[in-house]
C-alpha cells in the first residue's frame, strides 16, 4: 500500500455540516476534523444513511467497524481489510499503549503508519480493557490505577494520559476515558460513574492537543436507569464534541433493557452528529439498532467467532467443523463476493479447521468481515432507496425462517419505530 495519505486532512471542506466549527462559529478555530451529512432518512423509523467525513477519507454509514487488537485484525492484513472495502477500523489503545508503546508508534508515523493503514482509525480509551482484563484495577477521581501485566509497575490511566496516548497513536476518532461499571449493576455506584464520566469528558476535551485532526467522542453512561441516562445525555450534549457513543450496554443486560436504553439515547442525541453504539455486532442487533437511529457499530464477535469455525450467513451461521460440511462443495455463501467464497468450498474449510491450519482462521475471518460490511451496505442502500422497512422484514424472514420466530424484543423495538413485522 502507499504511504498514509496525510494530505487528506488538509483538503478544503465541501459543503457539509462541519460539526465542531459550526458549533463554535466560523473562523473561531481550525477546520473541523469531522463532518456529517445526512444523505437519506427512513420515512418511518429513525434509520438514516450518512456520509461521515474524517481525516482519512469519507465513511458511508451505517457502518460496522472491525476490531483489531495489536494493530491489525487477527488473521487478516491491513491490505486485505482495505480491499474488502473497510474504511474505518478499531485500534486497541490498551494493548498498543503498553506494547510497543506510544513513543514507538509515534516514531512510526502514528498507528496509520505503523499498521500501514490508509483508512480511518478509531481508538478506545483503554479504560474498558483495564477494568475488564485486570483484576488489580482501581478507579478513583484521578483515573484508573492498575499494575502492568508486563512488568508489575503501577500505572495511572487518567483522562489526560488516555488522550495523550491516543494523540500519539493519531487515530481519527478517539474515545473519552469513562468510568465503566457492569451494565447489570444498580444503585449509587452507577450514578457516581455517570457523573464521573461527565467530569472526565471535560478533562479529555481539555487534554486533546490535536482537535483539528483527531475527533474526541463522548460516551453516554447511566446504566439501565432511564433517569440517569437522560441526565448524562443532557449534560454531555451541552459539550462541543464531534460525536457521541452509547456506552455501558451489551454487557449481560436483557435485550429488552438494551433496546430501550438505545432508543432513549438516540431520541436525545443531536441529528447532526454521529451516534456510535459500542460493542454491538450480531446481525439482528445491527438491523434493529439502525432502525433505532444508530450510525456506527463495533464488536469482536464476527472475528472471534470465525476462529471457532463459525461462518456468518443470512440464515445465521454455519459451524464449519461439523461433519455435514465434510463433503459440501459449495462456498460458504453463494451470494458472497469475498475472496474465500470465490475460491474455497465448505469441505476445504472443514478440512483445514480439522487440521488446525491457521489459514482456516484467515479464510473464515475474511468472510465474516465481508459479511458484516455487505450487511451494512445492504441496509444503507435500502435506506437510500426508501425501502428500509421492507428490507428489515426480508432480513428477519431469512434469518428466522418465519417472522413469527423473530425474537420478541426485536419485534417490540421495531414496532416502536413504526416497522411492524406481522
Ligand atoms: Zn464470503
From TrEMBL:
Gene Ontology terms, MF aspect: metal ion binding; protein heterodimerization activity; protein homodimerization activity; tRNA-guanosine(34) queuine transglycosylase activity
Record's GO cellular component terms: cytosol; mitochondrial outer membrane; tRNA-guanine transglycosylase complex
Main location: cytoplasm
Binding site for Zn(2+): 336, 338, 341, 367
The keyword Mitochondrion belongs to this UniProt entry's keyword annotation: yes
Domain tRNA-guanine(15) transglycosylase-like: 45-399
Positions of the UniProt region annotated as Disordered: 1-23
Cofactors required: Zn(2+)
Keywords on record: Cytoplasm, Glycosyltransferase, Membrane, Metal-binding, Mitochondrion, Mitochondrion outer membrane, Transferase, tRNA processing, Zinc
Subcellular location, record wording: Cytoplasm; Mitochondrion outer membrane
Top-level taxonomic group: Eukaryota
GO BP annotations, alphabetical order: tRNA wobble guanine modification
Binding-site positions, substrate: 124-128, 178, 221, 248
PANTHER family according to UniProt: QUEUINE TRNA-RIBOSYLTRANSFERASE CATALYTIC SUBUNIT 1 (PTHR43530:SF1)
Annotated HAMAP family: Q_tRNA_Tgt
Assigned protein family: Belongs to the queuine tRNA-ribosyltransferase family.
UniProt-recorded name of the protein: Queuine tRNA-ribosyltransferase catalytic subunit 1
Species name: Vombatus ursinus
Primary gene name: QTRT1
Amino acid at each position: 500500500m502507499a504511504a498514509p495519505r496525510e494530505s487528506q486532512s488538509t483538503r478544503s471542506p465541501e459543503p457539509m455540516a462541519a460539526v465542531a466549527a459550526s458549533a463554535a462559529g466560523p473562523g473561531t478555530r481550525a477546520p473541523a476534523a469531522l463532518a456529517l451529512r445526512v444523505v437519506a432518512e427512513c420515512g418511518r423509523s429513525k434509520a438514516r444513511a450518512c456520509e461521515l467525513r474524517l481525516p482519512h477519507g469519507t465513511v458511508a454509514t451505517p457502518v460496522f467497524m472491525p476490531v483489531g487488537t495489536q494493530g491489525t485484525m487477527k488473521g487478516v492484513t491491513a491490505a486485505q481489510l482495505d480491499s474488502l472495502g473497510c474504511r474505518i477500523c478499531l485500534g486497541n489503545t490498551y494493548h498498543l499503549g503498553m506494547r510497543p508503546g506510544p513513543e514507538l508508534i509515534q516514531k512510526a508515523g502514528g498507528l496509520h503508519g505503523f499498521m500501514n493503514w490508509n483508512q480511518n482509525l478509531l481508538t478506545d480509551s483503554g479504560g474498558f480493557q483495564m477494568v475488564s482484563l485486570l483484576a488489580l484495577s482501581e478507579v478513583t477521581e484521578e483515573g484508573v490505577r492498575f499494575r502492568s501485566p508486563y512488568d508489575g509497575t503501577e500505572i495511572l490511566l487518567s483522562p489526560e494520559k488516555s488522550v495523550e496516548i491516543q494523540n500519539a497513536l493519531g487515530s481519527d476518532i478517539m474515545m473519552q476515558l469513562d468510568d465503566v461499571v457492569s451494565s447489570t449493576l444498580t444503585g449509587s455506584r452507577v450514578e457516581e460513574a455517570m457523573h464521573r464520566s461527565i467530569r472526565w469528558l471535560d478533562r479529555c476535551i481539555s487534554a486533546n492537543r490535536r482537535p483539528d485532526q483527531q475527533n474526541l467522542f463522548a460516551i453516554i453512561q447511566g446504566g439501565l436507569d432511564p433517569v440517569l441516562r437522560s441526565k448524562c445525555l443532557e449534560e454531555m450534549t451541552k459539550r462541543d464534541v464531534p460525536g457521541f457513543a452509547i456506552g455501558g450496554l451489551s454487557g449481560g443486560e436483557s435485550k429488552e433493557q438494551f433496546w430501550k436504553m438505545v432508543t432513549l439515547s438516540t431520541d436525545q442525541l443531536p441529528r447532526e452528529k454521529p451516534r456510535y453504539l459500542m460493542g454491538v455486532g450480531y446481525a439482528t442487533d445491527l438491523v434493529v439498532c439502525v432502525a433505532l437511529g444508530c450510525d456506527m457499530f463495533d464488536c469482536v464477535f464476527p472475528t472471534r467467532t470465525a476462529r471457532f469455525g463459525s461462518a456468518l450467513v443470512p440464515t445465521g451461521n454455519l459451524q464449519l467443523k461439523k461433519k455435514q460440511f465434510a463433503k459440501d462443495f459449495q462456498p460458504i455463501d453463494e451470494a458472497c463476493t469475498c475472496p474465500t467464497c470465490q475460491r474455497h468450498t465448505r469441505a476445504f474449510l472443514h478440512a483445514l479447521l480439522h487440521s488446525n491450519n491457521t489459514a482456516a482462521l484467515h479464510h473464515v475471518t475474511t468472510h465474516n468481515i465481508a459479511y458484516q460490511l455487505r450487511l451494512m451496505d445492504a441496509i444503507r442502500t435500502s435506506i437510500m432507496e426508501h425501502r428500509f422497512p421492507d428490507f428489515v422484514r426480508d432480513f428477519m424472514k431469512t434469518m428466522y425462517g418465519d417472522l413469527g420466530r423473530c425474537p420478541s424484543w426485536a419485534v417490540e423495538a421495531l414496532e416502536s419505530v413504526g416497522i411492524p413485522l406481522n
